[in-house]
Amino acid sequence: MHIRLLLTAFICSIYLQVYAQQSEKDYVVGSTYSLASKIMNDEQEIQIFLPEGYADSDTAYPVLYVLDGQRYFLHAVSLQKSFVAFRQTPGFIIVGISQNSSDRNRNFSINSQKYLDFIKNEVITYVDTAYRTTKKRMLFGWAYGGGFVLETMTKQPHLFDVYISASPFPLANKIAKIDSLLSKNTDFDPLLYFVQGPMKEL
Q: Which member of 25, 44, 97, 149 lies 3.0 to 4.6 Å from 141 by CB, making a disulfide possible if both were Cys?
């Protein structure tokens, strides 16, 4: 009797393991790439998410570039999926631009021009070469990243079609530069979405 119970338990455990192996599926969000950057003189990591149906079509897509991809890439993918599912927006490619915490503040301040050159000449060039893009681009950043978005708009106003700046910091001189840009370019076409809220972390 004990042997039968042991055999039954053993067979059930095998069945459950096999069933679990057949049902288990890894959930992978996008791909991660390491770019050998000559501008930054270092390996730089980016994440790329392709919209559903990309592989089965020849459609070109706009691209959302997300600063601090190590923090916000997955948030952007989640929102994109929700927006597309509810037909709030067509599909678009998402590129997360990650960086080490030790480099982050410098890249958004004293090294900002160098970091902008890296994004323009290496990240965007790579994405436009490797993927089907419409050359319509959006840039998102939060806090120091949001301040970098505003700086990018004043320095390279037509590099992106949409600038999304969330709780940008610091704002000193940036608003004046934006006013100057808009006053000199009354037909300014790119869209700026600017939101300011309480900041507990930069």
A: 149
Q: What is the C-alpha separation between 33 and 17, in angstroms, rounded?
A: 34
Nearest to 163 by CA among 199, 177, 109: 177
Measured in degrees and rounded to the nearest 5, phi and psi for residue 161 equal -90, -25
| Mean pLDDT score across all residues of the chain | 87
In this predicted structure, what is the pLDDT of residue 11?
46
First to last CA, the chain: 67
**Residue 111 or 5, more confident:** 111
Residues 13, 155: Cα–Cα separation, whole Å: 64
DSSP state of 54: G
Beta carbons of 32 and 46 less than 8 angstroms apart: yes
The pLDDT of residue 14 is above 70 = no
